[in-house]
Amino acid sequence: MQWRSLVVGLVVLxxxxxxxxxxxxxxxxxxxxxFNFPLGFSLQKLDLLFRExxxxxPGGSSWSQRIQGPKYEEPASxxxxxxxxxxxxxxxxxxxxxxxxxxxxxxxxxDTLREKMKDxxxxxxxxxxxxxxxxxxxxxxxxxxxxxxxxxxxxNPSNININDVLGNYSLTLIDTLDTLLVxxxxxxxxxxxxxxxxxxxxxxxxxxxxxxxxxxILGSLISSHxxxxxxxxxxxxxxxxxxxxxxxxxxxxxxxxxxxAFENTSTGIPYPRVNLKTGVPPDSxxxxxxxxxxxxxxxxxxxxxxIGDSTFEWVARRAVxxxxxxxxxxxxxxxxxxxxxxGQWVGKQSGLGAGMDxxxxxxLKSYILFGEKEDHRMFQxxxxxxxxHMRRGRESCNEGEGDPPLYVNVNMxxxxxxxxxxxxxxxxxxxxxxxxxDVDNAICxxxxxxxxxKRYGALPERYNWQLQAPDVLFYPLRPELVESTYLLYxxxxxxxxxxxxxDILQSLEKNxxxxxxxxxxxxxxxKSKEDRMESFFLSxxxxxxxxxxxxxxxxHRSDNKYIFTTEGHVVPIERRFREKQWxxxxxxxxxxxxxREQNHRPTPSNITNCDRIPEExxxxxxxxxxxxxxxxxxxxxx
Length: 638
Fold this sequence. Notes:
three-stranded antiparallel beta sheet; globular; Glycosyltransferase; 20 strands; mainly alpha
């Protein structure tokens, strides 16, 4: 009889709890107890409550509905009418909690702490750099666990994870040159430049990815040459006696060796890889990603304008136009992988992460640098398509009800969602939104990635927002979240972003530091490591962290304007880069932009858009506490 009494007791208990829930919230019994919902959580009844309260049509679609399927119907329930006259609770009230905890934590950042973090970022850089020079140079990378150098995998040419990047040309030293200037070390910068001049040659039997060689090597050589030769730049006259444009000559030599990638393609879209000595390998594939083919214009364009040879900008711009012409007519979206001979999309996913990220970035940055209206019109049309088809969530970042804004991966032809993961490369996008003046959307997307960082102490390569768990678990010390944090701080001067930087800095010290540097985190949960320190850790991650805390850096005090390449190299915004020494024999092709796109909005001048953030919000949290708490909840922080 005892077991029957136990069963009856449990039934009565469940009915009692259900009734309480019905009376309080209209929740009723369901398969989920408590409030630990995934991002695609089933809050239809809560959603209905706030829709009624706001006078919104319950038949409208929320983000979770757009992801999960058809709209829900209002349940025919008599219990929902109990207490009809009592005040109804907003859905967002479930995330109110103790809002002051966010204010207390993030609303101020003492100058002494800022100095401490600046010194910590500098020490981080030099711990990696000094050990690279001691144990790895002249090889490409440092293995920080074994304290050894790493070059191309000559025994396994198909190991593109290594060979796409490492070309046996002292990659880390070259990629790091302008970071030395940012940290104020003119002596070491000059020493490093002389080492590059004396030891680096591109006459190597190395097959490398065109994109990686362009952004890491070509971009750094051009940036360092500009900083060396023009005393008007932020760091002053850092040149030295006897410098005869050797870095520019090296850049030109490398670019010439990359040019065969643009030959023998029926679309003008380049092959993904070249051998620096022999050209395109005979077994080269005909498929390339959109970012890889469409993110060459900044470096190639600057080189053309420095040396007066239009060839490099011409081939890079032709590739961008070819990709742009392949976008879908209905959605305006591009795919992520294309066949360079047929122009057919092999990968139909359209997103903001791997395979697509820097394509959008360089449309805007090319316009900022070169002033070509065509680049701006393409970017604005692409941005509109992104907002229309990839963005999910409530309309306003900092107002209203509903899920927080997020950009998802969609089918380029239909705009329908393709999967439920986002990748860490997408964390660059808030920084690009800042450059475009869309600071409000940047704040919300950045907050989502920061919440993931807080949960794991790193950014997993892929994060499944529906399952609240990583899909791909490694973190190779990528800079994208730090970059966006830095740019948002420059736009808002809000101390919140200094706290974000401090969290990132301390996490890297705790989770990635090893005997001779900082290692790739193999597993963001158990914090196991891989013996690799990619060059972008010193070129970008450490640079942006240092700049975040160095308020008096020459880059911030200079009268000159500058921009960062996608690899974090400093490039000045100058009139000479807006002037061409040749006639444009490749004008904008007819039909490249539709009439609607050409007339969509006027081309703005390069002025700051930071005044879009109201003055009073610059001294409070950039995102209201209730929304921060909501995002933290959605990634499983509580």
